Amino acid sequence: MSTPNPDDYAFERKIPDGDNMERHVCADCGWIHYDNPKIVVGSVVTFEEKFLLCRRAINPRKGYWTLPAGYLEQNETTADGAVREAFEEANANIRIRDLLALYSVTHISQVQIMYRAELDRPEFSAGPESLEVRLFEWENIPWEDLAFPTVYWALHQYMQIKDEDYFAPFANASGEMLEKSYQILRR
Amino acid sequence: MSTPNPDDYAFERKIPDGDNMERHVCADCGWIHYDNPKIVVGSVVTFEEKFLLCRRAINPRKGYWTLPAGYLEQNETTADGAVREAFEEANANIRIRDLLALYSVTHISQVQIMYRAELDRPEFSAGPESLEVRLFEWENIPWEDLAFPTVYWALHQYMQIKDEDYFAPFANASGEMLEKSYQILRR
Ligand SMILES: [Zn+2]
Ligand SMILES: [Zn+2]
């Protein structure tokens, strides 16, 4: 489902009374549309050291592989949202373990909350937003065909703590991991 | 700054094409207003084992004590947002240490991201949204006059890990901590 583009509507940019930032204000009715950062919830899901990935049936990045993840809904906990997304995209019943990473993707104003999760049985199939869903051994992950840099970050950061019961969650990748992840988007 | 109430506008509740949830749709212009969960960023800020708290100058919970925290803005990292909020509310230059907690406050669709942070010098003062700002020893924290349950959670969870360099961040309080925190709202 695509988000409507404010530019398609009769919105003006202005600073409402009592505010200190420009906002979209509807020229017809005065509604103030606060552009709030969006929350994406998802997970690195494993089954017997294999990784559950979904090939996207929708844009952006249709045809590329991603983690089960999507927008948090109203009145939903972040963990429940990650469980729901795995069910919607992969018909998979996952069990959340713990918080793997918290990413700020500032150019698109997204906060991504990524969990570590497990499948108890290798039961899954493509939901409506996926072309296919598969379990990959680490060596066979389609690195050349990942959808987003944060998929690359989450998978690599997972490998750093896969034997840990407790760890401090990761933030945005930096250095070599960041550079390599950006190569994804050139494809 | 208060968020406009959708009920004050010519919005209808309906399910847009291609969606599976009811949304607010503007009856005048067709704009689809997605009610997305909001992100609050804040921190437990300490200076020499004392805790920085702000007394709220605005509703809700005007006059009660809170942590420096507020809504994440567009194009901002969660850590930068927490730094900005401490500066806006307490004129304090804080240094973020690590992620303390991730709360889902589902009845108001908020995700609260709380950091552990430090003040290098005890320099602060009330910003426009605060009546006063003070450093409290743990024993002197105004427990009877805290603004929100999550302030109670964050302070108590902080105490559990104050001597740790690395820890897994906390989620919503449960059990006795949750019950005690709800007593706050009876005042
Ligand atoms: Zn309107
Ligand atoms: Zn309108």
UniProtKB/TrEMBL annotation, chains A, B:
Give this protein's Gene Ontology molecular function annotations. Answer: hydrolase activity
Query: Which part of the chain is the Nudix hydrolase domain?
Result: 36-163
Q: Which cofactor does it need?
A: Mg(2+)
Pfam assignment, any one: NUDIX
Record-linked SUPFAM superfamilies: Nudix
Give the InterPro entries listed for this entry.
NUDIX_hydrolase-like_dom_sf, NUDIX_hydrolase_CS, NUDIX_hydrolase_dom, Nudix_N
Domain of life, per UniProt, equals: Bacteria
Keywords for this protein:
Hydrolase
For this entry, the protein name equals: NUDIX hydrolase
Q: Which organism is it from?
A: Sneathiella sedimenti
Q: What is the lineage of its organism?
A: Bacteria, Pseudomonadati, Pseudomonadota, Alphaproteobacteria, Sneathiellales
